[in-house]
Structures are given as structure tokens and as C-alpha cells.
Write a structure and sequence with these properties.
Length: 122
């Protein structure tokens, strides 16, 4: 018998548009990372969405074969809200990237484990 986590996804590539939805600001700076499972392996069929509430900008990026993703974000962004969609998740997970994390230009998302990303209630 299959559990819900075995039957959900991966469906995200179907809904991804061909245009570059990962450019919140085409003149911005790159913010890259990897979506990782509990064992530290990249998740190749996930999707990350970012929302810059201050500038009212939104973007979406599917992960590559190694779980990688990247966005172009405003250079002066102070915070971004993010959402993770991935196989096994019955509900998307919400996270936040603050200004000090944006300065590092890399934000890995860990779904489980000792260094798991902090996720917030919807």
C-alpha cells in the first residue's frame, strides 16, 4: 500500500512556463541554492517560488537535476518570502530569507535533518 508521500508529485515541470519566471528583477543580482532532502541529496523535481513584498515582485524556478535553483532578485531587497513545492509534501512549505542571508547570495533549502530550514505556518 502506498502512503501519501509516495503518491504526491513530481508534477511541477508540467506547470512551469518556458519564459524566465526566475527573474524578479532582470537587472538584479543572483541568488542561488540547492533544494536538499533529509539525506543531503538534491531534489531534482522541486519548485521554489519567491515573493518580494516590498517591490511586489514574484518568481518561480524549478530545480535542476542536482536540485539547484537560481533567481535574479533586487539588489536592495531586505527580505524575501519563499515557498517550496516538492514530492512528498502534501502542502507547500513557507520560509523567509532575511537581508543578512541575501548578502551571502546563496540560500540552500534543507527539508529535514539537523540543519533543516525553518519553515513557517501558512
Amino acid at each position: 500500500m502506498r502512503t501519501p508521500s509516495q503518491t504526491v508529485g513530481p508534477y511541477y515541470a508540467i506547470g512551469l512556463c518556458r519564459r524566465p519566471d526566475n527573474e524578479l528583477d532582470p537587472e538584479g543580482r543572483e541568488l542561488a541554492g540547492t533544494l536538499l532532502d533529509g539525506a543531503g541529496e538534491g531534489i531534482p523535481d522541486g519548485m521554489i517560488e519567491l515573493w518580494d513584498a516590498e517591490a511586489r515582485l514574484w518568481g518561480r524556478c524549478g530545480t535542476d537535476a542536482a536540485g539547484g535553483f537560481s533567481f535574479l532578485v533586487r539588489r536592495d531587497a531586505r527580505a524575501l518570502d519563499g515557498y517550496v513545492f516538492a514530492r512528498g509534501l502534501l502542502k507547500h512549505q513557507r520560509f523567509r530569507i532575511d537581508a543578512d542571508e541575501l548578502e551571502r547570495q546563496r540560500f540552500d533549502i534543507r527539508l529535514q535533518g539537523e540543519d533543516a530550514t525553518v519553515f513557517y505556518e501558512q
